[in-house]
Amino acid sequence: MWAIFLPAVIVAAGVIVRYGMSAISGKAISTQEIAGITVKGLVWAFFAGAMRFSSTSLTGNPNLVTKIYMPREIFPLAAILSQLLDFAVASVLVVVVFFLTRLGASLQLLWVPILLVITVALATGWALLISAACLFFRDVKYLVEVIITFAIFITPVFYDVEMFKKWSTLLLLNPLAPLIEGLEKCIVYGTAPDLPWVTYSGAIALLSLVAGFYFFKRWEPAFAENI
Q1: 62-77 in b/e burial notation, b at 16+ Cβ within 10 A?
Q2: C-alpha triplet 227, 47, 108: angle, nearest 5°
Q3: Cβ-based neighbours of 29, under 8 Å, separated by 6 or more
Q4: What is the predicted pLDDT for the residue at 130?
Q5: Angle at alpha carbon of residue 147, lines to 141 and 152, rounded to 5°
Q6: I need a labelling partner for 105 at 20 to 30 A (CA). Which of 65, 69, 196, 211 fits?
Q7: Of 47, 48, 68, the residue nearest 58 (C-alpha)
Q8: 139, exposed or middle or buried, with CB in 10 Å at 0-12, 13-18, 19+?
Q9: Residue range 103-159, pLDDT digits in tens
Q10: 34 alpha carbon, distance to own chain's centre
């Protein structure tokens, strides 16, 4: 129930924001906009949850980290997998919304696995970095909470980047933004995502993944004495 409740709250907030925008512009909110907010809200809920739970995945298990030998990256990866399970459960919302809005499917849905893999890779890279950093700097977990709280406003969850016209490029520099926008395009509108920006996000995800594993393994020998 919690896996569905949190994304549902994000989607509801997005619908309210989008309804306010439509009231100001005088243009009625469409069923496609509601479906788009649902898709983007679910992806954001996964990413935010992955960052939040991975940040304390090591510090929250001191006995396992210090007394049992195992690859320590299991802890942040477990946080990612748990959020993936919640994401799969919450995907029921998308099915319900698509049934109610009577949206169809297209061949562009083949982009969905690729975009999701890039999103998971991006989350994993940052999860490894954040979980390790929290051992050495305990305030990092509070910083993560602050960033998650405000990052939703610079991530196109409640709005589309096209609304900002010439400033849309700045928003797309957020590597999660092209992925969220791409999922909305291929699922809701049946169009292909912006390939150059998806490539950009893929490159950032790969860099984050490599850097995450590198620094995690480099710092791992000092985990026990700092936990």
Answers
A1: eeebeeeeeebbebbb
A2: 150
A3: 15, 18, 19, 22
A4: 92
A5: 140
A6: 196
A7: 68
A8: exposed
A9: 767 788 899 999 999 999 999 999 999 998 888 887 888 899 899 989 988 899 988
A10: 19
Q: Which residues of 21-58 are buried (b: 16+ CB within 10 A; e: fewer)?
A: eeeeeeeebeeebbbbbbbbbbbbbbbbbbbbbbbbbb
Report the greatest alpha carbon distance in the chain: 62
Give the gyration radius of the chain's Cα atoms.
Answer: 19
CA distances from 59 to 70, 129, 137, 221, 224 (A): 15, 13, 11, 15, 10
Nearest one of 37, 182, 50 to 114, comparing CA atoms: 182
Question: DSSP per residue over 40-85, as a string?
Answer: HHHHHHHHHHHHHHHHTTTTT-HHHHHHS-S-TTHHHHHHHHHHHH
Calculate the dihedral angle through the C-alpha atoms of 80, 86, 89, 90, rounding to the nearest 10 degrees. Answer: -110
- Positions of the chain with pLDDT under 70: 104, 226-227
Structure tokens at 221: 């020998």
DSSP summary character for residue 184: H
